[in-house]
Each structure stands twice: as C-alpha cells, then as structure tokens.
Amino acid sequence: MKSNSYVGGVLSLSGLALALALGSATAVAEQKPSPADIKKHSTTPGSRYEPELNVLEKEKMSPPGTQPGIPSLTNDEWATANKIYFERCAGCHGVLRKGATGKALTTDVTRKNGFEYLRDFITYGSPGGMPNWGTSGELTKEQVELMAKYLLNEPSAPPEFGMTEIKATWNLIVPVDKRPKEKQNKLDLDNLFSVTLRDTGEVALIDGGTKEIVTTIKTGYAVHISRMSASGRYLFAIGRDAKVDLIDLYMDPPAKVAEIKVGSEARSVETSKMKGWEDKYAIAGSYWPPQYVIMDGSTLEPLKVVSTRGMTYDTQEYHPEPRVASIVASHFKPEFVVNVKETGHILMVNYSDIKNLTVTDIAAERFLHDGGFDSTGRYFLVAANARNRVAIIDTKDGKLVDVIDSKGVKPHPGRGANIVHPKFGPVWVTSHLGDETVSFIGTDPEGHKDNAWKVVQTVNGQGGGSLFVKSHPKSEYLYVDTPLNPEAEFSSSVAVFKIADLAGEKPKFKTLPIGEWSGISEGQRRVVQGEYNKDGSEIWFSVWNNKSQESAIVVVDDKTLTKKAVIKDKRLITPTGKFNVYNTRNDIY
Ligand code: DHE
C-alpha cells in the first residue's frame, strides 16, 4: 500500500502527514491542495506556543562541509537557515534535531524523505501540529526551499556553557557588605509588583498602592519571569538568554546587585524557601545547554552546574537535550523541584549539602512544563502539556502521587489556582491551550479523600488559547485568560467564574472586556496573566500589544468585578507577567 494518497490527482494533505509519520521514502510532486485541506493544516494556538530559541541563533555555528549528493549551503545561507531553525523549529524538533514534541529531523530521516518531501511538508504542515509555514505566508517559497536543503545537512551544535563560561559572566555589582543594612526606601515591598517588559528586556517595579512605576531595571533578553527570595528582600529575574539579574529591593530605588549567565537559553529561576535556608541559594534551569545551576542566593556566585542529559523516564533511551522547565522551592525540605521536560523526570534537588548533592529522581511524564503548589504548599502539580496530563508530587514524602489525565488538550496552568470548591472541597485548577476546558483537581486527601487527585469537574471557558488561571484565598472568583485565542473578542477579555456557582448544573462565566477597559483601540490587546495585590482585593491584567503599540495594565476590583484603574506609561512596553512580592514569595495563587 502506498502511504501517500492522491485525491483527484492532488495529494491529500492528511496523506502527506501520514506519509511523514510513517517515514515514507516517496518524494511528492508539487501539489495544490483544496482550501478545506489547507484549513485542517492551519496552525492552532497550542502548536504556536512553542519555544523560540532566538538567543541560540546568535551563537557561532559553522556549516558542515560539503557532502556528495547533499545540497551545500553558503555561510550566509547557513546563518539564515540556522536563524529560522532556532526561531521556528528547534522548540519542537530540538536543538540537535533529535526530536522533542516534534519528530526527529536527523539526516537518517530527512535524507530518506528527500528534498521535495521536506519542502512540501514545511509548506503545508500537518494536522498533527506542524505549522503550515508556507501556505500561512510565514516563510517564503525560497525560505522553505532553503530549510529543506538545510535539513538534508548535518546539524551544528551550539556551544556548551560550563562553569568556566558561567563564572566568566558573573558580575557582583554591589558586594553584600556594601549593601544597606535596612530598607532604605519607603515602599510597601510586599505590595510591589515586578512586571515583565518582554520586548525591552526590563522589569518595571510598580507600587501596588499608588500604581506608579517606581523604577525600570535592565534585565536579560526577552525577560521571562521574576521570583522573590523567601524574606522578600531579593528579586530574581531571568531572561531568555539565560541571564539572571539579582535586584535588592532594600535599596532606594531598588537596583541590581549581581548578574550572571547560566547558559544560552533559559526560562526558570527560583530561590530557597525552606525554614532555616531562606535567601541562601538560588537556582536557574536552562533549555540550552540542558542543565541547572545552583548559586549563592545573595551574590549569584555559581556553586554547582548539573546536566540534565539522560534517559527518558519510560522507554529509558538517551535524550541529548532535555530542557529544564519550571522550578519551585519546597516548603517541607531543603529541596528544589526541577522539572525536566523531554525526559519526564522531576528532580528533588536537596541543597543542604551541595558538595555531596542528593537528588531524588521521580519518573513522572514527558513534556513537563509549568505548575504550582496546592493550597497547603505540600503537593506540587505540573502539566505534562503535550501528553494532556498532570503529574502530582508530594514534596513532603518526596514521591510521585499520581499522573492523571487533565481532561482537556494541552494543560497550561501557569502556577495554577487554588480554590475551595463548594461541592468538592480544596481543588487546584488548570485551563488549556488546546481547548476551552477548565479542570478542577481535588487536592485534599485528608478531608476529601474520594476527590483527591481526580479531575472532579470540568467547565468550559471562552475557548482555547488559555495560558493562566488565577484566584486568591480571599476571593469569591476564578479568572481564566485566553490571550492566544484566535478570536480578538476572546483574546482581549477574561472569563470569571463565581466559585459558589460551580456547584450548579452548568456554571456560567461572566466576561470582563479588559482590552476595551484599557481604552486602547489599536493592536491585538492580548489580555494575559492575572495577578493579585497583597490583600487580594484587586487583580491586575496585562493588555499586551506589540512593541510599537500602546500597552497597559488594567486593575480590576475583585469584589465588584469592575475596572478600578488603568496603568499607562510610555515605559510600559509589552508587559506580560506580573509578580506581586508577597504572593510570589509565599506561593499564594
Ligand atoms: Fe512562559 C512561565 C516557558 C512563552 C509568560 N514559561 C513559564 C515557565 C516556563 C515557560 C518553563 C515556568 C517557569 C517556572 O515556574 O519556573 N514560555 C515558556 C516557553 O518555552 C514558551 C512556550 C516559548 C518561549 O519561547 O519562551 C513560553 N511565556 C511565553 C509567552 O509568550 C508569555 C505568554 C509572554 C512572555 O512574557 O514571554 C509567557 N511564562 C510566562 C509567564 C510565566 C511563565 C507570565 C509565569 C507565570 C506564573 O504565574 O508564574
């Protein structure tokens, strides 16, 4: 049987996808698929939300030499193709092209399939999640052809980044003994927000009371998240270029006291929170090289680098680049919980003796991404997003509790939300990137044994493309954003569920038109990531536009669900994540 099928002389796109899935060697001729087929191949919010490794593209990588029968690329062509590969392809197919959520693109596979095959696959994508780069217009015909040739050549590996390279980037700007002994400013630090200004590579510190920008601080490239030390004095920000910045909030104004680069591409940073170890250590995990680095919490001096390369948890095969996704700090033991994405291991890294490091390695599920604690801080729930599952860890006993189906497509909780469900007791909530499902997972094995570690209910939000849910112990509401929904109406608003109504038949949500409330009329106005103020009376949402357009933060009164304030400032460029000092350091969400 031929694996690629023709419909009226035209190759059916599902046939094309199937052919690649089966590793068919048959090259295909130029085709003109029907508009309906092309639609099946158009990219979903879920498949768009993959890492752009656009820092790695800047690393020096030379083209492989010429090989008989393989199209060779000039240095310039190689540089262009590398850039496209790291920005668009490496997130799914891996830096070394050995496969991650996408298939392996090593030369044994690509050469079997041939140039035309690759060209057409890149052009049309697949219903399995490969974007239709050509027919969507995102890559030109020439670029598609260049990429097909590039894939026939051996990949080039970006450089490693070991202790020597890490140490060379360490800059202790203000030594500990030169820092203030007491807080120098009049800020209510616990109600300060660190706001990611994604495209300027800065964080803005915004006073939760006055809603004014206290200062903006230069950080790493496309800065990703902020985390606070247990005492609340220090703020850590990590850029996508793996640069960690340590900011002393006691200074007037708060300022950077140390910086370091822990790799070439990274997304996560955390600090020790166990009683007796507050502020002592920091940890950052990187996508490339695949490793984590433990640092001194007040100086960022690098102390230990540990590679995460190793075996997949299930088939126990070697994976050369399992990235570090989320990291949280245990409240029950001196441990960091490090989530290794592609191999599906959750590492409980005990920092009480860094020289004789002990790591409990928990086999969980592949494609771990983001997660957070239950309301007691004992259990950690993390999405294995490409597997539609959630892994649950007991951080007190250091054991896997379970891995469960999230009942939706591509769970994406952020840190999740904890609410007390009127019928099922304490639950942790996640929404999904791939569909409208909002899932509630029981988290109280003592008081509600029958509901524990089960999806006890699902409700429908506005649609797919959700990234973050949020609530607060004092709130009566649960908020669900949808910034990646293709419909502007949904991406610029949020759904709010009244917790008490969740016991009813078909709980309805109320829509808050945050984008409209911002008063901004231009751009996509993606509304992203709710974050509460310290006392839980307000929730802040970013209205995230392009760099050249106006953005804002809209503050919602949590009691009345009405607009309370709009923060606008010419420095507020591409605001995305917001991290309230008190809630972040105490894991309140
Ligand atoms: Fe994030 C958290 C990775 C794109 C905003 N993001 C995280 C975490 C990871 C991650 C691993 C968990 C960190 C932790 O808890 O230690 N994010 C990635 C990606 O790989 C991805 C998909 C693509 C990329 O190239 O980076 C990606 N993320 C985005 C965005 O496009 C967002 C919406 C806007 C932005 O600023 O880049 C975005 N990610 C966030 C935010 C958090 C986050 C706001 C923290 C949420 C929280 O409540 O803690």
- Give the overall pLDDT as a whole number: 91
Gap from first CA to last CA: 54 Å
Q: Give the count of helical stretches.
A: 11
- Summarize the biggest pleated sheet: 5 strands, antiparallel
Q: Could you explain how this protein is built, in words?
A:
- The model is unreliable at 1-32 (pLDDT under 50).
- A 5-stranded antiparallel β-sheet has the order 3-10-9-8-7.
- The chain is an alpha+beta fold.
- The termini are far apart.
- Helix 1 crosses helix 6 and helix 4 crosses helix 7 (141-152).
- Bound molecules: heme D.
- Heme D (DHE) binds at residues 49-52, 196, 198, 224-225, 240, 267-268, 325-327, 369-370, 414-415, 467-468, 528-529, 576-577.
Topology, element by element:
Elements: E1 6-7, E2 10-11, H1 13-21, H2 35-41, H3 45-48, H4 75-93, H5 107-113, H6 115-124, H7 141-152, H8 163-169, E3 171-172, E4 192-197, E5 202-207, E6 213-218, E7 225-228, E8 234-238, E9 243-248, E10 255-261, E11 265-271, E12 281-288, E13 291-296, E14 302-307, E15 310-311, E16 318-319, E17 324-329, E18 335-340, E19 345-350, E20 358-363, E21 368-373, E22 379-384, E23 389-394, E24 399-405, E25 417-421, E26 425-430, E27 437-442, E28 455-460, E29 469-470, E30 477-481, H9 488-491, E31 494-498, E32 509-512, H10 514-517, E33 526-532, E34 538-544, E35 552-557, E36 562-567, E37 575-580, H11 581-585
Antiparallel strand pairs: 1-2, 3-10, 4-5, 4-37, 5-6, 7-8, 8-9, 9-10, 11-12, 12-13, 13-14, 15-16, 17-18, 18-19, 19-20, 21-22, 22-23, 23-24, 25-26, 26-27, 27-28, 29-30, 30-31, 31-32, 33-34, 34-35, 35-36
Helix pairs in contact: 1-6, 4-7, 6-7
The structure holds heme D.
The site of heme D (DHE) has 24 residues, from strand 11, strand 17, strand 21, strand 33 and strand 37.
